[in-house]
Amino acid sequence: MTGSAHTLDTKRLLCPMPVIRTQDKIKTLAAGDILKVTCTDPGALNDIPAWCRINGHEVIATDEQGDEIFITIRVH
Question: 5-74 belongs to which CATH class?
Fold first, then answer.
């Protein structure tokens, strides 16, 4: 079963806001949904996957393009 795709823009927000916004968004999603987070804070590349591990969500991709970071999460 494939969930719905969602996006979250946290560009120009500094730690810990990208993680907090990701957490708040995931609370509104269903298991199986996919969330693609866009951020510019380099710390988010470590912080969001760490939060996902602690909370049982799966990071399925990370990508960097210029100063933007994309983290794709499968909600569990």
Answer: alpha beta
pTM reported for the whole predicted model: 0.94
Report the catalytic residues.
15
Q: Give the C-alpha separation, 33 to 37, whole Å.
A: 13
Question: In whole angstroms, what is the distance from residue 72 CA to residue 21 CA?
Answer: 14
Supply the pLDDT for residue 3: 87
pLDDT at 58 over 90: yes
Which whole number is the average pLDDT over 10-14?
97
CB proximity list for 13: less than 8 A, separation 6 or greater:
21, 39, 40, 41
- Report domain extents, the chain: 5-74
